[in-house]
Every structure is written in structure tokens, then in C-alpha cells.
Amino acid sequence: MQIPAGGRMDLQVSRLGPRKEKAVVVMGATGTGKSRLSIDIATRFPAEIINSDKIQVYEGLDIVTNKITEEECRGVRHHLLGIVDPESEFNAGNFVSTASVYMQSIVGRRKLPIIAGGSNSFIEALVDDDNNQFRSRYDVCFLWVDVAMLVLDQFVSDRVDRMVAAGMVEEVRNMYNPNADYSKGIRRAIGVPEFDSYFRAEHSSSYTDQKTRTMLLETAINETKINTCKLGRRQIEKIHRLIDVKGWPIHRLDATEVFQKKGTEADEAWDELVAGPASLIVYDFLFDRYRDFAAAKAVAAIAQEKTACYNKGYGTLQVKQWVESKVPLQMLKTTERRKAVSAQAAHKHTRRQPELTIYSTAVLQVTFYACDDDYGHDYDDHVYDGHVCAHDFDSARCHVPVQRHLQDHVYACDSLSVHDVETVVVMMVE
User: Which Gene Ontology cellular-component terms appear in the entry (predicted)?
Assistant: First the structure.
């Protein structure tokens, strides 16, 4: 299955019949890339984003609250981002009523609502409302961007340093009020109350020496780092509670490796480990499909290596032997019963009778193909939206249907002798 690069899916398919509307929720600790992922998804599907960060809803303090910039939005429409009076209160009830209106508007434009943010209390209040209105109207796909805490702690610490360099201290100074209430409005943001002592020293009529001011500034910055790390841990604890206690089916996407790389390597790791798998999850969710992602990843890696072998000039026999050595022989479990497997012969070679290996995994649609023939003809399986294009194969010359029912498991490697067949494609069908 391939999602057209740079294109967007037509969601009208998922609106046919008396079905619920679809919604995606992107969760995770602070700094893990929730906004980035939500925008990645929104550039692949017609979607709009509803911010669910209880501090980013307020206007102002863009550096302190890490609001996404207009450039980073990449043209994706955002709602509830920097629009609330910073002096007012905006609680979970306000979020539920406002977000519900936005969601109705978004689906009315035949687009996908993506709720993204770190305030799990807001998300929980919306999804599990008292009257069950949300659940009765929407099917939800939960995505969780996760990063190992020690790795995230270092990233958060470095991010605070970048925020300071970008002007965070001056930004907080401009709204400092010695009589302000740090339990209300935008002043609850981490990075505001931590600087109170520093600014009080600045505004004090008594003399404060430079050494003391420097110490107070360093203390404020360190407290901002510590409290941000503590916030991340609380957010992760809440996500685990939603999984373990409430039974929310949340898809975890491990982005740890991304944060251990830099530059182009980090971007490539993000696409491979986070944005790519998330897009497939959302695609299957929108079109009611099932996918075994562990199996899909294994097969994709083998396919890539196979292509690399051909590019290096390896012969067909060498490639076939390499593939057979890499395909796991252990049984792959599926989470739900598969109904059937069909195999279609793609090419007839009358000069020999090869024994073929059908590579089958728990991937929903086409998974893999056997080697090309000795004459260098490569009959790759061209895939579009998870289906094999029939015109890519000479099925009129040779057609060998193979069917067997699967119960709870499917083997990753099944041997099958087929007379006069060169290439076999395996599909999972519902």
C-alpha cells in the first residue's frame, strides 16, 4: 500500500453508509513531536487540527509555550491555538464545548479532525464525556508519540536553552506583574512562575548585585527544565492510565531513535519510525483495514535489501538465496482471524520446473514476490492502495490459484512447488 507522495486521500469513501465520523487524537509528553506528527498527517489527508494543549490555547508567550509557527503549520488550518484571553480561565469544560463545535464544522467540510496536544485531561474529558456524545458520533484513532524519558530529558533541557537564546526571558519580563496570580490563565505556563524571584529582584528598590542576579537567573532556568521534565512524566503516567484502566486502544510510536540523531538522519528516522507508520495507521483506520505493522516493517526491510542487491549487480540466484536466508521462519501472530490467502502466478517459464517459496506475512494485502527469471525479467508487484494491479502479470498464460484458511496464525514462510511458475505474489484478502 502506498500513499501518494504530496497528495491527499479522498475521505468520502469513509463517509458512505450509516457510519460514525472519524477523528484522530495525537498524544504524548511535552517535546516529543505531537504538533509535527499532526501536521504530517494533515498534509497526507484532508484534515484540520484542534489544539488540545491547555496553555497553548492562550494568546501570547509564544516562546514560553512553544507554539508552532506559521511556517511550521505548512498551510494546515489550526483551531484553538493562541486565541483565548491570557488573563481568563479556560478549563476542560470550555475545551469540550469549543472543540465539539470545531469538530462538527471540520467534518461538515468533509475533512478529518485531528486533536493534538499534551493536556490529557482535556482529551479525556472530550472523548469520555458524561453523555457519551463523542463516542456515539466518532470513531477515534489514538496515536502516542513516545520517547525514552532520559533521552527526552536531555532534549527538554536543550530546548529550554534554545528558548532562552530566542528571547524567553524578555518575553516573560514584558508581562511580569508582581501581584499576578500564577494559578490562573497563561501564567500557569512552565517558565513563568519560575522567574518570579528573578524579576522581583530586578524590581526591588534595594540593590541586588550582579552575582546574585545571575544566580537567580540560572536557578529560574534550571527550575524550568526540572518542572518541564516532571510534566513529561505526569503526561506519560496519564497515558498509561488511559491504556491500563480505561482500555483506550492507543498506537505507540517510538521516536527515541529520532532524538538520538541529528539533521538529515533525524528527519529520515522520523519518516521511517513515526510519520510513515502513523500515516499507514490512519489510512487503515479511515478505510477500515487491518495491518500487522511488525510484519510489514520486516517485509519492507527485506524488499529494500533485495533491491540493493540487484543494484549491486548480484545475480538472480544470489538474490534468491539471500532473501531465503533473511525471511523469518517463525510463526507470526495476527490479532484477528484472517479469512483466506490467495496466490496468483505471474509468469510461465516452460524450460524448467522451479520449486518456489511463497513469502507470506500477516500484512493485509500484497506482501512480497519471488525472484525474477534467469533471463533478467523482473516481475515486481506494482501496488496501488494495497492492491496488485492485474495488468502487471501475464495471468492469461498461467494461473495457479492457491487458497488456504488461516485461524489465529500465519507462517512467514510457506514452501510450495508449482509447475512452470516463476513469480508468485501473495495477497491477504478480507
Answer: mitochondrion
Closest among 114, 16, 19, 119 to 65, alpha carbons compared: 119
Ordered by where they begin, the domains of the chain are 1-289 (3.40.50.300), 296-429 (no CATH)
C-alpha triplet 82, 137, 19: angle, nearest 5°: 125
Which residues make beta-bridge pairs with 369?
425
Amino acid sitting at position 112:
L
> Looking at this protein, which amino acid is placed at residue 185?
G
φ/ψ of residue 105, rounded to 5? -65, -40
Residues contacting residue 2 through CB under 8 Å, at least 6 positions apart = 383, 384, 385
C-alpha 328: how far from chain center: 27
The pLDDT tens digits for 157-202 are: 999 999 999 999 999 999 999 999 999 999 999 999 999 999 999 8
| Strand ordering across the sheet containing 47-51 | 78-79, 47-51, 112-116, 21-28, 138-146, 250-254
Of 189 and 304, the one with more pLDDT:
189
Rounded CA separation 190/226 (Å): 10
pTM value? 0.66
189 neighbors 61 (Cβ within 8 angstroms) = yes
Spatial distance between the Cα atoms of 95 and 144, rounded to a whole number of angstroms: 20
Task: Tell how far CA 411 is from the center of its chain.
Answer: 28
Three-state DSSP at 404 gives strand
CA distance 95 to 84: 11
Mean pLDDT, the chain, whole residue set: 74
- Confidence band for 354, pLDDT divided at 50, 70 and 90: very low
* Residue 242 or residue 340, greater confidence: 242
**Rounded to 5, what percent of the chain is helix, strand, coil?**
45, 20, 40
